[in-house]
Specification:
globular; 24 helices; 12 strands; 586 residues; 49% helix; alpha/beta; eight-stranded parallel beta barrel; disordered N terminus
Length: 586
């Protein structure tokens, strides 16, 4: 295990564990064989033994002969009768119509017809207007083995100018407004007007814009209702939240920058360790001061974060390598900014506690990379508190990011050391075009993998690592959120190799309502835990969400030829078989 990896783990350590962090040769895993001698592998760095990770084979290379005797599950994703058993013929025809319309929705008059919307797009991708109206669909899907992740999809219909104004007001602090020319912030973690409308280039993720604290309270209540409905619908439900819905995003930007600057500092220390301890000391950051700061920012637990007596601005301190001093990220924070930061954390805490009471697993959605370090860190702190007995909190990892695998492995390692249940949702990512444009325009490294194949490799690499951890301890859990049939087949193959039964409820699958039924329903009927993301809300308030998805997602739908072909195949099978008025039985 490299020292760089070791210090990265420090950012996620607890006071009780920071002195215990060691790279144990029996517990570390790596897919790369070490070429160093045994003497080179064991080193002393600041009193901590750092050992090079021993090479360990992947799942496919480590299975014993007895596993071949286990009953392997094979699922035929070409079996249209099983895939569409839950749909009547009218629903099949609607799906075919919608997938065709997705390609021609650029017609300027299309969105004038709300009734047509409800018959087509709304009926295909939205379950209903409220909790009562969505119950029949949820019950029907459950009868065929498919659960629901409820998603209240009402979205503000803002103009671009309105969205930019809201974002700049919410992300720029009072101190920055007073000194707009001050250039001491990392440009990636500052708000930029040309990217103020965070909806740009986003195909499927919903975007929240901060208005005031009352609106955040209302959105928290909406999430509470979704959690309650998920708990009432099944014994093992899921619900999803976004942190940008729960508070002013200024805090997420600032906390992300602080975390990244501390990581940079630790990387600096690790680079200097190989040369001379004196060089590190010459940076003038006194060790006692560093120790105090570590216990404040890196070792703070969730209970302290939400406590009214904790001053959140005290966390926002960063090391200055030029001066050798710790400095506040901003010179001043207003009392209201302090309260806003605290309220965001307290709202998240309310949701986590409610999820635990209802027996619902709570997935924290990933967002843009300039928010994500803070979101991931806060989610990890929640996992430390709420995942002691079972997995309640799930973090989301975007596999189109270059750093995805490093993030997954460090968090898994920490969960193993501290003994809590690791929960992850793997996605490819929803902000690729926006992220690339922003990095290029503002001038920082593109965080996205170079191409789609690289993202696929990253997804499978992260997935296999977590599956290996499940095989190792049965304390890891993963939601494979994908429409990619090859990835689903890859997952099933690995589960067969490791002898992992779907009834163990360690591996879950997720797709959007109205898409990829040929994947979801065969999985559900074979006993795998599979869930549909189920949007709901009034027609006129969901139209902005559907409209943008239709307009921006046409490229994806053009590639849905396979799904359209399967729908036609099933429809023809029913007609030729005398099932003109087929109705699902459940």
């Amino acid at each position: 295990m490299s020292y760089t990896k070791f210090v990265a783990a420090l950012l996620r350590a607890t006071p009780g564990n920071v002195r215990k962090i060691r790279a144990s040769p029996g517990r570390c895993r790596s897919t790369v064989a070490s070429t160093k001698s045994q003497e080179e592998k064991g080193q002393q760095i600041d009193g901590c033994t750092v050992v090079e990770a021993a090479p360990v084979e992947l799942i496919s290379q480590t299975k014993h002969a007895e596993n071949t005797q286990l009953c392997k599950i094979h699922i035929d994703f070409d079996n249209t009768e099983e895939a569409y058993k839950s749909k009547d013929n009218v629903e099949l025809l609607r799906s075919l119509l919608v997938f065709k319309l997705y390609i021609i929705t650029s017609h300027p008059c299309f969105w004038m017809f709300e009734k047509l919307m409800k018959m087509t797009f709304y009926g295909q991708f939205v379950a209903g207007e409220d909790h009562n109206s969505i119950k029949p669909l949820i019950q029907k899907n459950q009868a065929f083995g498919v659960g629901a992740v409820l998603d209240y999809s009402v979205e503000e219909d803002l103009t671009q100018e309105e969205a930019v104004k809201k974002e700049m007001d919410a992300c720029v602090s009072e101190a920055e407004k007073e000194s707009p020319d001050a250039d001491y912030r990392e440009k990636k973690y500052k708000a930029h007007r040309q990217f103020g409308d965070r909806r740009g280039g986003v195909t499927s993720a919903r975007t929240y814009f901060y208005a005031d604290e009352s609106k955040c309270d209302n959105q928290m209540e909406t999430f509470i209702n979704c959690i309650s409905a998920s708990g009432g619908a099944s014994a093992d439900g899921f619900s999803a939240i976004k942190m940008t819905a729960l508070g002013r995003p200024q805090f997420l930007l600032q906390f992300s920058e602080v975390l990244v600057k501390w990581r940079q500092f630790f990387n600096f220390l690790s680079a200097k360790q190989g040369k001379s301890d004196m060089i590190v000391l010459e940076q003038k950051l006194e060790l006692e001061q560093l120790k105090v700061r570590l216990q404040t920012i890196d070792l703070l637990d969730w209970n302290s974060l939400i406590n009214d007596t904790t001053k959140i601005s005290n966390l926002l301190m960063v090391p200055n390598l030029q001066t050798g001093h710790l400095e506040p990220l901003l010179n001043t924070f207003t009392a209201e900014e302090e309260r806003q930061m605290k309220r965001m954390l307290q709202r998240v805490d309310v949701l986590a506690k409610h999820a635990m009471e209802k027996g619902v697993r709570l997935m924290v959605d990933a967002e843009q990379t300039y928010f994500q370090p803070a979101i991931s860190r806060l989610t990890l702190e929640m996992q430390r508190k709420f995942n002691r007995e079972k997995p309640i909190i799930f973090n989301t990892y975007q596999c189109y990011l270059k750093e995805a695998y490093d993030n997954v492995t460090v968090d898994v390692e920490l969960s193993r050391r501290e003994g809590w249940y690791f929960g992850a949702k793997l996605v490819r990512g929803a902000y690729m075009y926006q992220e690339r444009d922003r990095a290029k325009e503002i001038g920082y490294e593109d965080p996205i993998n170079p191409d789609y194949e690289a993202t696929n490799r990253m997804y499978h690499k992260c997935l296999e690592y977590v599956l290996e951890e499940i095989d190792h301890s049965r304390k890891a859990n993963i939601m494979v959120a994908t429409h990619n049939e090859d990835t689903v087949k890859f997952t099933l193959e690995k589960m067969n190799e490791m002898g992992l039964s779907p009834t163990e409820n360690k591996v879950y699958f997720g797709q959007l309502l109205g898409m990829c039924d040929q994947i979801s329903f065969p999985l559900g009927q074979a006993g795998f835990p599979v869930y549909k993301y189920v949007p709901y809300g009034p027609v006129n308030e969901v139209i902005p969400y559907l409209s943008r998805r239709a307009q921006e997602n046409r490229g994806f739908m053009k590639g849905s030829q396979r799904e359209r072909s399967l729908l036609w195949t099933e429809l023809k099978r029913r007609v030729l078989g005398g099932q003109m008025f087929y109705k699902p039985v459940y």
